[in-house]
Design a protein that fits this description.
heterodimer, A: 175 residues, alpha/beta, Glutaredoxin, 5-stranded mixed β-sheet, two-stranded antiparallel ribbon, 5 helices, 18% strand, globular, B: 645 residues, alpha+beta, 4 domains, 6-stranded antiparallel β-sheet, 4-stranded antiparallel β-sheet, 18 helices
């Protein structure tokens, strides 16, 4: 039996250990300054994701009023976790548009039916093309966009309860 | 005083585990064999004590003893008895106590029933089992005491998460845990075998029934969990690739590989190192799953209350046990003699392929589950790896795996001819091809994966019975029947999965009372909405009738339930099961015009997924019983022969 090969399992376990130990000790901070902050939304046109909501174009994001753009997916578990926060933002008067990433209309409708629909418009981004152009690497992510269509802030990961006032403040400041 | 009694029993069990470990180690190192006589009784006593501790916790929940913090946090006095009992394990501390109790019972099981292992291997095995127990007892007593009191005593509790108030949940975690933690026996066996260099057919035969037993429970637990998620979450899906689901799938994949490779070791004395590694990996995956679920490093809908100290504690235990076992593996297995060799085209060859493919799937699931954590560590981004990745990456491998599953049992041990094999499976191949042809002709919009899955399932269903060809059915051993049933179960489940993903019809409507909705052959009539009240909830219930074709009219009642104690809402889907599928109706919210959202699915043959799972478990059970009976018979024959001499 090849001796060095026998150490491979232990080595793999050590890697696993390092990753999760780092994950455990890392403070849960998910505000990352993105390269897209200060840039305009790239031009795009996305078809409607579900029948009940209209399609989403980049021009819909520059209406004069600051708004949120949320990238989500029905298969994404953190998106479920952040759904109540999005609804709270909507109740607080925020305009929220959605981009559904790599999803099907049935699954999206199902997801929104179950967890609530805070979106005014939802575009479906079947191949994550727009998502990538926006500089987003995963779901969920939320962009704060000012009235002229310029990205003010990129929130990576799910929106926690404590993020809601921060996002509302940013929307206010963007006016 | 009851709670304190439970705590004392737990402390005593921990002390006994420590004693068991110490006696085993001293006895082994100093060669004091007289110590060994005490070890079996200690292992049994430890199992009894921890079981008593767990039963006391159950009793506290039944009595709704609101002076115990855990009961206050997770129960409420007005709740059906069954959910009071299941509330015991519907939380972190209680489920951890169940976990540890099963660990203790597993150790007691070895002490009571294991008669074939060599003495030193058995003692080392019980030492390893006690060593694991000590760590988890410490974890419970130091970081997760379930018997903690609360003062002042509140008038009532805060209730159990409504999603968990379900008959499925009453049985699902215990079943799953018996499987999960039962694998600790294989782990301890492997450690015992490695340290004593006692790896061979006798060892494999001793380990096999334990692995099968744990695997049967794990299979049942996963099947039940999948069905529970299917009807309770109201999403209409049966597997979500959630980290917690993956945490139960990974030990199952490893254990499935193990129970195939252990046959090679038992029959042909091959795959020694590999089998040992799998035995270590299977229980390691159980422990890693426990860690992932409870430490909060991954976001999941199932997550328990998150506490980083607890995470750190379990991670330290993982490092000791998994790291330790893998270090023993690296140091010792090099000195274990290599097993016998075989040709690529042989029963062993097919089983090796089975093992490699199962391991590949395990790797994919493992990486997918941990990838978000990894990305977060490297770039700070938080992402979610979803079903698209898992389906795409595991699907094709799983199909190759089941194709090999059809051929494997028809191969001879050691060496066979590819041509002869082709001859033996010509009929299943023909059936698969015919099914594929028929499906391509007569169906539209099937995905490639489902298409191949359905066609393969047809072939496998036949191939799984091929080992009976030209055999005396009455003299065929029971474990062969077990294998046939389990493999047939895979085909059955595969039909359900492929059919569900391809032929499901779905409608989302906003309906007013009196409206009729047509889905496939179903006429669904929405009659009325009525408020009703249950023991600890109130609900809006839709009166719906459904009629399939010209058949009988059935009444169903999907509900939206409100649980005041927990201030949450759950949707209770209404299911109507026919032999050829299930109608699944979910009641949504109402709109301003007084219409109600109704989501209706017709899922042809979806139930086969779970019937298949049950068949797989049944096959495992038959194999286990068959093996045990044969071992007893052989022992009797040996004794008889010795008596004659």
């Amino acid at each position: 039996m090849n001796r060095p090969l026998l150490w491979v399992p232990l080595g793999l376990f050590a890697i696993f250990f390092a990753i999760v130990a780092a994950g455990l000790t890392r403070p849960k901070d998910n505000i990352v300054e993105s390269k897209m902050v200060g840039k305009s939304i790239p031009e795009f046109v996305l078809p409607a994701a579900i029948e009940q909501r209209p399609a989403l174009r980049s021009t819909d994001l520059a209406t004069g009023k600051p708004q949120l753009l949320n990238i989500f997916a029905s298969w994404c578990v953190p998106c479920i976790a952040e759904a109540p926060q999005l609804l709270a933002l909507e109740r607080a008067g925020a305009t929220i548009n959605g981009v559904a990433s790599r999803d099907t209309p049935a699954d999206i409708a199902n997801f929104l039916n179950r967890w609530g629909n805070p979106y005014q418009r939802i575009g479906t981004d079947e191949r994550s093309v727009v998502q990538l152009e926006l500089g987003s690497s995963g779901v969920p992510e939320t962009f704060v966009i000012d009235g002229k269509g310029v990205i003010v802030h990129q929130h990576i990961g799910d929106i926690r309860e404590e993020d809601v006032p921060k996002l509302l403040q940013m929307l206010k400041e963007a006016e | 005083m009851i709670a304190e009694t439970g705590l004392i029993a737990l402390w005593l069990a921990a002390a006994l585990a420590l004693l068991q470990f110490a006696l085993c180690t001293i006895g082994l190192v100093k060669g004091r064999d007289e110590f060994f006589a005490a070890i079996r009784p200690i292992a049994i006593a430890q199992g009894v004590l921890v079981t008593i501790s767990f039963l006391i916790l159950v009793w506290l929940f039944i009595r709704s003893d609101m002076s115990v913090k855990l009961v206050v946090m997770n129960s409420v006095a007005v709740k059906p008895l069954i959910y009071k009992i299941s509330g015991t394990w519907g939380n972190h501390e209680g489920s951890m106590l169940l976990w540890v109790a099963i660990l203790g019972i597993a150790g007691a099981g070895i002490g009571l029933f294991e008669r074939t292992l060599k003495q030193r291997t058995l003692v080392t095995t019980l030492a390893a089992q006690a060593f694991i127990s000590v760590g988890f007892y410490a974890y419970l007593l130091i970081a997760s005491n379930p018997f903690e009191r609360i003062f002042p005593v509140p008038a009532d509790g805060q209730g159990l998460n409504p999603l968990l108030q379900d008959v499925g949940l009453a049985l699902h975690p215990p079943t799953l845990y018996i499987g999960y933690v039962g694998l600790s026996i294989a782990f301890s066996f492997a450690v015992g075998a490695m340290i004593n260099r006692d790896v061979g057919p006798d060892f494999a035969k001793a380990m096999r029934p334990w692995v099968l037993g744990a695997w049967v429970f794990l299979t049942l637990g996963i099947t039940a969990g999948s069905y529970w998620a299917y009807y309770e979450l109201g999403w209409g899906g049966w597997w979500f690739w959630d980290p917690v689901e993956n945490a139960s799938l990974m030990p199952w994949l490893a254990a499935t590989a193990l129970l195939h490779s252990v046959n090679v070791l038992a029959t042909r004395d091959g795959l020694r190192a590999w089998t040992l590694m799998l035995a270590v990996v299977a229980f390691s995956m159980s422990m890693i799953g426990t860690f992932l679920v409870r430490s909060g490093v991954l976001t999941s809908v199932h997550a328990f209350a998150v506490d980083p100290t607890r995470g750190g504690f379990i991670l330290a235990l993982l490092a000791i046990y998994i790291g330790g076992a893998m270090a023993v593996f690296a140091l010792r297995v090099g000195t274990v003699k290599e097993g016998s060799q075989f040709e690529p085209v042989s029963r062993e060859g097919a089983l090796v392929a089975n093992n490699l493919l199962l391991s590949a799937i395990l790797g994919i699931v493992f990486i997918g589950t941990l990838y978000p954590l990894f990305v977060e560590g490297v770039s700070g981004d938080m992402i979610s790896v979803g079903a698209p990745y898992f389906n795409l990456a595991t699907g094709p491998i799983a199909l190759i795996l089941v194709a090999i599953m059809a051929a494997g049992p028809l191969l001879r041990w050691r060496r066979d001819k590819a041509k002869a094999l082709l001859n033996r499976i010509s009929i299943p191949i023909f059936i698969t091809a015919a099914a594929l042809f028929g499906l391509v002709l007569f169906t539209t919009s099937m995905s490639t994966l489902s298409l191949l899955g359905l066609a393969l399932a047809a072939g496998i269903a036949v191939a799984s019975f091929a080992p009976l060809w030209k055999r005396n059915l009455r003299r065929t051993p029971m474990h062969t029947y077990g294998m046939i049933i389990a493999h047939f179960g895979v085909a059955v489940a595969l039909v359900g999965m492929a059919s569900e993903s391809s032929f499901t019809e779905e409608k989302l409507v906003a309906a007013s009372p009196g409206d009729e909705v047509i889905v496939n052959n179903w006429k669904v009539n929405f009659l009325a909405i009525e408020p009703i009240a249950g023991p600890n909830w109130t609900a809006l219930e839709a009166r719906v009738t459904a009629q399939y074709g010209d058949g009988a009219i059935h009444q169903i009642e999907p509900q939206n339930r409100m649980f005041p104690a927990a201030q949450t809402q759950t949707s209770e889907a209404a299911l109507l099961t026919r032999w050829n599928g299930q109608l699944y109706v979910v009641l949504g919210d109402s709109d301003e015009q007084g219409r109600w959202q109704l989501r209706i699915w017709w899922k042809p043959f979806v139930t086969l997924i779970w019937y298949g799972g049950v068949l797989i478990a049944l096959g495992g059970l038959l194999a286990m019983i068959g093996r045990l009976r044969r071992a007893v018979r052989q022992k009797r024959q040996r004794e008889y022969a010795e008596a004659l001499i």
